[in-house]
Structures are given as structure tokens and as C-alpha cells.
Amino acid sequence: MIGSNPNDKISDLVGCIKKESSSFINEKKYFRGKFHWQDGYGAFSYGRSQLDSIYKYIANQAVHHRKKTFREEYIDLLKRFDIKFDEKYLFDFFN
Prior knowledge:
The protein has four helices and no strands. It is an all-alpha fold.
């Protein structure tokens, strides 16, 4: 969860996070080969009035994921936010 200025570009933030974390992972040699993130990202916005329910959800996430996988939940979010997607391009790391 990240709070941001409405004028900030989410794509810039995600690009920075991917770049810096890839460098860190490769410097520490956590993988035998070179680590890189797959293309794309998902970002969902919520208002301040929804923060309490989101914090509660995160606190109970382990229980929640006994009923629904992360993949199922992510696809549900895409559908709820009316985001067009093709399932064959989601989650390269699971295939």
C-alpha cells in the first residue's frame, strides 16, 4: 500500500521499484541467473475512507487466501474495476 500525490505517475513509481529491486536482488545474488520483472503491473486505487477495511483485510489475508488464491483474487479485482485482460498474459511466473 502506497500513498501518493495525485499528480505522480504510477508507471514512474512502478518502474523505479522494479529497477531498484532488480538491482538489489541481482547484487545479492538471490538467484543463479539474472533476475528481472515481467512486463506490466497492476495498480488499484482506494480512498482514505476505505483504508480501515483494507488494513483489516491485510491483517486477515492468510485466512482469506485459504478460500481464494492470489490469482483468483487478482482476476476478481480486474473484473471489479472493469479492466480488460487476457488470462494467458497474466502471471508468467505461475505457468
